[in-house]
Amino acid sequence: MRETLLQRIKTHVLELTPPQALALSYIGLCLVGSLLLKLPAAAQIPITWPQAIFTAVSASTVTGLVVVDTGTHFTLLGHWILLFLMQCGGLGLMTFGILIIHLMKGQLGLKHRAALRESFNQSGQGDLRRLMLWAVGFTLITEALGTALLALQWVPELGWGQGLFYSFFHALSAFNNAGFALRADSLMPYAGNPLVNSVISYLFISGGIGFIVVADILGQPGFKNYSLHTKLMLIGTLAINLVAMVIILVLEYGNPATLGALPGWDAKLWASWFHGAVPRSCGFNTLDTGALLPSTTFFIIGLMFIGGGSGSTAGGIKLSTFIVVLLATWAFLRKQERPVVFGRSIPLDIIRKSLAIIVISLLCVTTGIFLLTITESAPFLDVAFEGVSAAATVGLSRGITADLSLPGQAIIMVLMVIGRIGPLTIAFLLATWRGESIQYPPGQVSIG
């Protein structure tokens, strides 16, 4: 009997490697999202195919760059479509797919476990099924909590119906590090609002620090019992956020278009904290990003490139990758064979993997920026900022997104997709090292 087309498709799908399945999942989500956003009932104003595709890619990769105003251009249906795309793209399509497999079959095969490890950027075995179910539960609970807290601000302002939806939309967008907002000026009216700043910060940090870290914190009593990865992420996140806050406060304090326009120290501190933490993961802004000084803009480009936590909803090369390379460099300067921190040494294969991720990410980003300088006439700093923001799936912009040419939009979309699936695929390809059967004599190369 001839094999049917459906059976052949099923066979090919089951033979996909985890990186292939992950890439095709995100590309498929982008295509489905484009079709849904093109529905007449999804938009207040007729939307073009390029606009629909760009918005779908941005939402599916939880980036947040937009070519149309999210709040006024889309209907309620369109907003729900964006929420669906952000949730799938943030938590990971592989996680949703394997969750369905688990519920239907009650077990996870070796290939499905490999796919789940890839989705969370983990190479160890562990109890992946428990981690997957826990991650979904944590996501839903955190988003519900964020919605309830934000409702304290927006229900009195907007009424019960609009206020609750406004709160839910921003809570889901923040936790998934998407940065989509229902106002054209994002969260600028709340630059000094303690409730909005603290809740949104909690949401994107908890979503961007990594599910493994949160699970370790809730499952282990005391800092000394945490894993090395959790310790590095907690200290690294706190340190980089505080340092970034101080630097932005110092640089922008006298800028009349940003911090200088805010009344009182409390508003300035909240805005400095927010813009010190948000570039590594989420695209919300409480200051006019286009009005930032060149020095601040360049500093934020570095924060965006570093990104959030491994196995999280954030992008970038990941903070743990950055820390490993810093520790390896410090060990080299001290003539140590390998870095040691908290009584644990970091294996050489982790160092090689970190270096490879940084180099490949730099190649992708610099290539994208180079192409954008050809297609766009905007200032170089704005183009570089846009390119890094897309590749790190951050979503901050200096106001040039809507003015990009069609080739420029295509380049940004490619960077967003690479930024979302690239580091995971790279991690998978570099996760297993195979020894060489043939050994070659060492050669000397002059460096430095």
Structural class: mainly alpha
Major pleated sheet? 2 strands, antiparallel
Specify the number of helices: 18
How many domains would you count in the coordinates? Answer: 1
- As a percent range, the share of helical residues equals 55-70%
Radius of gyration: 22 Å
* Number of separate strands: 2
Helix and strand run: HHHHHHHHHHHHHHHEEHHH
Distance between the termini: 65 Å
| Overall geometry | globular
Q: Strand portion, in percent?
A: under 5%
- The largest sheet has its strands arranged as 1-2
Low-confidence residue ranges:
none
> What is the average per-residue confidence, as pLDDT, rounded to a whole number?
86
Q: Care to describe what's here?
A:
The chain has 448 residues and is mostly helical. It has one domain (15-429). Helices cover 64% and strands 1% of the residues. It contains 18 helices and two strands. It has helices spanning 5-14, 18-37, 49-60, 70-73, 76-91, 93-105, 110-119, 128-158, 160-175, 194-208, 211-219, 228-252, 264-277, 294-306, 319-333, 348-375, 380-391, 406-429; strands spanning 340-341, 344-345. Strand 1 (340-341) and strand 2 (344-345) form a beta hairpin. Helix 8 (128-158) runs antiparallel to helix 10 (194-208), helix 9 runs parallel beside helix 10 and helix 12 crosses helix 13 (264-277). The radius of gyration is 22 Å and the shape is globular. The model has no long low-confidence stretch (mean pLDDT 86).
